[in-house]
């Protein structure tokens, strides 16, 4: 024990000024003399700690510029380091909380320990190591947390278990060889590519996106998520793979902590009770910024993230009436076949072999012309498919992640191409809410055609000369029932010729149908040429 303590003191002797304090196997203390009329009359020992304790570094957070203190102490025959707020180490009431982390402090020695720490830090300001720190994962000045020695992690206690999950177990070769045959499943390969794509979002300047695997139970979705997260660390449930049965604040806080690493959430349908619909969730997380919060005395730091969100669930998160903004930001894959065969075997393997691919992938990303690869895929997708920029951007990120990973870990195997993923991209019309709403109304008119006849019990309107005159109240009601809003799409309908305005510029016509006067919306029906007719 004495040897270990002396070795530590030798290591830091040039970085710390202990003054008259003594640190050895008996703890921290100093001899004090009592003077009376300028003459020593008595002496006593001032004890700061019964175990060796040393301030070993000052950490300054890169984002907030707040300082923390690294304290090292010797206990149970080994040195342990903890990172604490400087305000905690400077207050005799607050420092007692560090007893929970193993520091031997109580109400008797708290004041003396605070005095010792503050005096040593003050005397060592110009020699004590001053290290940059970050409380979230991801890119910082060309380096990537946690794969760097240049930046220290100083995150909150609530995320330390998540930080510890970003670690390695097993060997890279074992992981690469085991995963190789699993990549024959396109669903799993896309899921892994979405995970690899997450650190690229910040570099390319794109927005976060959602990759959603959905299908019936037993299709291997959860195991697919675990394989994708085994790239970065421990994919066990509750670690890098999370259940979506969490509060909104917990979800956004976790996303902010992961920052540039992917967020994996299992069983998406469990969030229904906390969100009005999936659209609200999708828009919230893909904005990449949490709403501001204010405590009683200050505005709290705004949390942000630039990562991919990989979800699994039993139903699609994009519905018929989902907004264009939400649909734009989601790549959705229905698991028609099993994502992985022999899920138990695969799950057991990735629980014991994980985290080996993350660091080499990041090092490879630094060498690659990432933006050029992304631009090439983006251009190909836009030119060969009828889709939107956001859909093309999300899928180009996924293809870029797969390309870099394939070159690095599975050389000789072909990377995914635009042809491989064309079926997973939404067309512009599928994204366009005005187009989807118009098609829904046409389908509703066809389904309820009897309500447009003169002898109908419930008259919706009339059909004449290629137009449907539909009661505005009826139209708004059937649209509202599935989440569409007439006022949100009426202008686009008019621009596209789907809706004919009244000569006075209004979107409704006041007219009589079967003797009933009301406001009707005049909608153009699609021409019947080249449409197969049924009796």
How are the SSEs ordered, and which strands pair?
Blueprint: H1 2-12, E1 22-24, E2 27-36, E3 39-49, E4 53-61, E5 67-75, E6 78-85, H2 86-89, H3 110-123, E7 130-134, E8 138-140, E9 143-145, E10 152-153, H4 160-165, H5 172-182, H6 186-204, E11 209-214, H7 221-229, E12 241-243, H8 248-258, E13 263-266, H9 278-287, E14 308-313, H10 324-328, E15 330-334, H11 343-350, H12 358-367, H13 370-384, H14 389-409, H15 418-421, H16 428-431, H17 433-447, E16 461-464, E17 467-471, H18 472-482, H19 486-496, E18 509-513, E19 516-524
Parallel strand pairs: 4-7, 7-10, 11-14, 11-15, 12-13, 13-14
Antiparallel strand pairs: 1-2, 2-3, 4-5, 5-6, 8-9, 16-17, 17-19, 18-19
Helix pairs in contact: 6-7, 6-14, 13-14, 17-19
Q: Can you give a write-up of this model?
A:
With 535 residues, this protein is an alpha/beta fold. Helices cover 37% and strands 21% of the residues. The protein has 19 helices and 19 strands. A hairpin with a 2-residue loop joins strand 18 and strand 19. Helix 13 packs across helix 14 and helix 17 crosses helix 19.
């Amino acid at each position: 024990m004495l040897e270990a303590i002396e070795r530590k003191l030798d290591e830091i002797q040039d970085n710390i000024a202990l003054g008259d304090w003594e640190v050895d196997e008996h703890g921290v203390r100093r001899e004090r003399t009592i003077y009376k009329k300028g003459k020593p009359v008595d002496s006593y020992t001032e004890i700061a700690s019964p175990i060796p304790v040393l301030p070993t570094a000052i950490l300054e957070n890169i984002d907030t510029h707040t300082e923390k203190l690294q304290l090292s102490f010797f206990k149970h025959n080994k040195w342990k380091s903890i990172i604490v707020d400087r305000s905690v180490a400077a207050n005799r009431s607050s420092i007692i909380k560090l007893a929970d982390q193993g520091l031997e402090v109580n109400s008797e020695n708290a004041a003396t320990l605070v005095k010792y720490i503050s005096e040593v830090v003050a005397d060592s300001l110009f020699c004590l190591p001053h290290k940059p720190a970050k409380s979230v994962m991801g890119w910082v000045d060309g380096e990537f947390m946690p794969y760097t020695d240049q930046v220290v992690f100083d995150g909150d206690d609530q995320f330390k278990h998540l930080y510890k999950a970003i670690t390695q177990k097993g060997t890279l070769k074992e992981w690469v060889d085991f995963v190789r045959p699993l990549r024959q499943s396109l669903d799993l390969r896309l899921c892994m590519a979405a995970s690899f794509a997450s650190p690229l979002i910040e570099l390319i300047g794109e927005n976060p996106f959602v990759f959603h695997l959905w299908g019936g139970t037993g299709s291997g979705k959860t195991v697919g998520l675990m394989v994708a997260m085994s790239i970065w660390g421990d994919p066990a449930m509750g670690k890098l793979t999370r259940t979506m049965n969490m509060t909104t604040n917990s979800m956004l806080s976790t996303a902010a902590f992961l920052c540039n690493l992917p967020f994996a959430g299992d069983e998406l349908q469990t969030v229904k009770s906390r969100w009005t619909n999936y659209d609200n969730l999708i828009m919230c997380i893909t904005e990449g910024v949490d709403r501001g919060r204010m405590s009683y005395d200050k505005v709290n730091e705004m949390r942000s993230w630039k990562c991919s969100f990989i979800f699994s669930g039993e139903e699609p998160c994009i519905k018929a009436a989902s907004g264009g903004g939400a649909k734009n930001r989601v790549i959705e894959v229905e698991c028609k076949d099993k994502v992985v065969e022999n899920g138990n075997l695969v799950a057991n393997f990735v629980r014991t072999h994980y985290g080996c691919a993350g660091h080499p992938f990041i090092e490879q990303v630094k060498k690659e012309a990432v933006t050029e690869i992304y631009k090439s895929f983006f251009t190909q997708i836009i030119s060969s498919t009828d889709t939107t920029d956001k859909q093309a951007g999300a899928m180009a990120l996924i293809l870029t992640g797969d390309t870099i990973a394939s070159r690095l870990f599975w050389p000789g195997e072909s990377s995914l191409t635009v042809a491989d993923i064309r079926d997973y991209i939404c067309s512009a019309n599928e994204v366009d809410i005005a187009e989807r709403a118009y098609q829904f109304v046409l389908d509703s008119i066809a389904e309820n055609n009897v309500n447009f006849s003169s002898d109908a019990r419930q008259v919706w309107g009339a059909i004449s000369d290629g137009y449907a005159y539909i009661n505005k109240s009826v139209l708004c009601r059937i649209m509202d029932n599935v989440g569409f809003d007439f006022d949100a799409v009426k202008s686009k309908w008019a621009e596209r010729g789907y809706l004919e305005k009244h000569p006075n510029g209004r979107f409704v016509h006041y007219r009589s149908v079967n003797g009933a006067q009301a406001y009707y919306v005049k909608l153009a029906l699609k021409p019947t040429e080249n449409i197969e007719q049924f009796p």
